[in-house]
Amino acid sequence: MSRPDRARTDQGPSVPGAGDMMTALRKTEPGPGLSLVRVPAPECGPWDVKVRVLRTGICGTDLHIMAWDSSAESMCDAVPFTPGHEFYGEVVAVGAEVCDVQIGDRVSGEGHIVCGTCRNCRAGRRHMCIRTRSVGVQRDGAFAQYVVIPQVNVWVHEPEAGAELISPELGALFDPLGNAVHTTLKFPIVGEDVLITGAGPIGQMAAAVARHAGARYIAVTDVAPHRLEMAAECGADAVLDVSDTRIRRAQAELGMREGFDVGLEISGQASALQEMIENMNHGGRIALLGLPTRSFEIDWTAVVTRMLTLQGIYGREMYETWNAMSAMLTSSSTLRARVARTVTDVIPAADYARGFEIARTGSGGKVLLDWSGEI
Ligand SMILES: NC(=O)c1ccc[n+]([C@@H]2O[C@H](COP(=O)([O-])OP(=O)(O)OC[C@H]3O[C@@H](n4cnc5c(N)ncnc54)[C@H](O)[C@@H]3O)[C@@H](O)[C@H]2O)c1
Ligand SMILES: [Zn+2]
Ligand SMILES: [Zn+2]
């Protein structure tokens, strides 16, 4: 919808702060580690938006970049750069051609920048763009006081649509929550029995979304008891530590006779997918978000003879997933509370090393860095 009240003429092309310096957490050279350094703040091009970052989430990608392992080396284009892609902030400048985003808007950011011209982009399937580039991986990201992204990548939390209900913490979760929503709603789940493997932040959020969206039974697996407790708080009916309990037992406890209808694989673990396959009803559908770190075998005979569907999931649908997230969060205080509780630590950016350590060890849930204070 156009926003005539926020037309470009109201605000004029403006790039305040051009030439300013800022603090950013940067990969300054190939190799392990990140450094908090002073660098020039990024400036807006004509179709860009400049955001003062308030919170940035730490995710698995950032841990790879911090460690500078082989996956980081193959993902990232050039060093130095600023990582970070899960963020919330306030718009402080817009380019001359930007009409729909206004200075002062509170926003989250879609980190996948698509080409706009490949077959899928032109068909409106932007999450399947063949030339996706990622904020905080192939261009400067949001572990910084300011980040610049194209206006189409900005998700404005509209005041008239309940923006005040979206805290900075919730706003910074829109990227991983979008992964959870995209995965959970890929197949119909109303009245269905849902198995989620992996109770990390995204698996927990998937449990909350599945509950909100009308699943019957939700079973969640992990190997970390504190994460299973968090999944139970998100609304799961059964949580299972698969280091010593089999999923079959959850079926029996829940009174299920035939197997799960929908599987959400959110751990990236070979054994999790295999055990999921063994516990699906015939005709069951599996959405796979977890990224395996190696190739592995599964029981393809079971996939074939039980007519299972396996569907990979990448990112978020642009921007239907975003619309669903905003609508569900602003209309349900229960969902808001469940999603918000996946954040266990909000840490001043200057103390980033502690935040990365909590995220690396998995001792908490989602870890956010706070960029709003003195750094
Ligand atoms: N496809 C995408 O676009 C996309 C986007 C973001 C994240 N991801 C992937 O989604 C997954 C979840 O992300 P997250 O941030 O919640 O990560 P996470 O690492 O915090 O969560 C993974 C969880 O799986 C658990 N686990 C380990 N072994 C298990 C097993 N055998 N069975 C069940 N659970 C087991 C871990 O203890 C952990 O809690 C990761 O694999 C991540 O790489 C994919
Ligand atoms: Zn992420
Ligand atoms: Zn494209």
Explain what the structure shows:
The longest helix has 12 residues, at 201-212. The chain has helices spanning 8-11, 60-67, 70-75, 119-122, 168-172, 174-184, 201-212, 225-233, 247-254, 270-278, 300-305, 320-331, 333-340, 352-361, and strands spanning 21-26, 35-40, 48-58, 86-94, 106-109, 112-113, 133-134, 146-150, 154-156, 194-197, 218-222, 238-241, 260-265, 280-288, 309-312, 343-348, 366-370. It is globular. The chain has 2 domains: 4-173 and 342-370, Medium-chain alcohol dehydrogenases, catalytic domain (Quinone Oxidoreductase, Chain A, domain 1), CATH 3.90.180; 178-312, 3-Layer(aba) Sandwich (Rossmann fold). Strands 3, 4, 5, 8, 9, 16 and 17 form a 7-stranded mixed β-sheet that branches. The chain has 375 residues and is α/β, with parallel strands linked by helices. The structure holds nicotinamide-adenine-dinucleotide (NAD) and zinc ion (2 copies).
Core attributes:
single chain; 375 residues; Rossmann fold; 2 domains; six-stranded parallel sheet; 14 helices; 17 strands; globular; binds nicotinamide-adenine-dinucleotide; binds zinc ion
